[in-house]
Amino acid sequence: MSLDKGLQKVMSEVPGCIACGYVDMVSGMNLGVKTVESHPAEVIELVAAATAEMFQGQTISMIERLFKKARGVKDDGSHFINEIIFTSGNLIHVMLRGKKHTEHALVVVCPTSTNLGMALSKARLVLESVENSL
After folding, report:
1. N or C terminus: fewer CB in 10 A for the chain?
2. Model pTM?
3. Sheet holding 91-97, edge to edge
4. Binning pLDDT at 50, 70 and 90, where does residue 90 land?
């Protein structure tokens, strides 16, 4: 399955999904994007950069190191923060760090009228398909 087909599966299986993307957090670039509407390229690029910053920015990295130290866990490069959910106006944004490719993240956008639990569950389920499409 291609990444394009993997993202199409996200669009069809996550309830209310209006946009999704797969982000390389090392470069801060989108590897693929699907939307129901067209959006300016700048907006789509900023979402990728913001995803990278939210998961791997300086402050988050420091928090993860402090968590490991407080718990007596060796810093082996693994991450504590693997899912981020936030709202912006009338939208829910679900960001899931890859399990197989931890330097990648799936971003799913749905209206706030969407059942958050269902959207999160379905996004978790399709993450593997997207990762396997690379």
Report:
1. N
2. 0.92
3. 29-35, 19-24, 104-111, 91-97, 83-88
4. very high
